[in-house]
Amino acid sequence: MRSFQFRVVALVATVVLALTAAGSAAASPSNPSIYLSKISLTGANTLYFGYIYNGVHVLGNNLGFQGSTKTFPNVAISVPAGTTFADRVLYLYDESCAGIYFDDGTGTADHATVGSGTHHRTVDIADAGNGCTLSTATVSPARGQGNLSLVEAIH
Q1: How confident is the model at residue 17 (pLDDT cuts 50, 70, 90)?
Q2: What distances in angstroms separate CA 153 from CA 28, 74, 121, one per listed residue?
Q3: Cβ 53 vs Cβ 99: under 8 Å
Q4: What is the DSSP letter of 137?
Q5: Which among 14, 67, 96, 154 has most CB atoms closer than 10 A?
Q6: Quick check: pTM over 0.90?
């Protein structure tokens, strides 16, 4: 796990620096938590997912479940008032193909489809595909069809 975390930290270091330099999006009403629900992970590749907010956080993987769907419990991320979706980044790391894909469309390639809600939205992120054939291509998974699929809300 340490080796994986080191690789993720190395892959996202430039993104974290860019987010820090860019600052936050416009403040929204008081929002004590970002909630992730209906979380599912599926794929034949070895996948990890998590978020970047005050560090890199690994929420889960599909080890032992490759080729099937694994669901995860809801997650609450405590955040200060005024936090928006732009203040944190969700990621899918495809260890099999050494690709990392972020919900904001950055990373190895744009593999994300994100709903347009301000306080509630769906997020779907695709992996690199079997044989890594899609690792650098733009991929737009349909709603609910990403290798990582979840609903995100700010309350």
Answers
A1: very low
A2: 13, 11, 6
A3: no
A4: S
A5: 154
A6: no
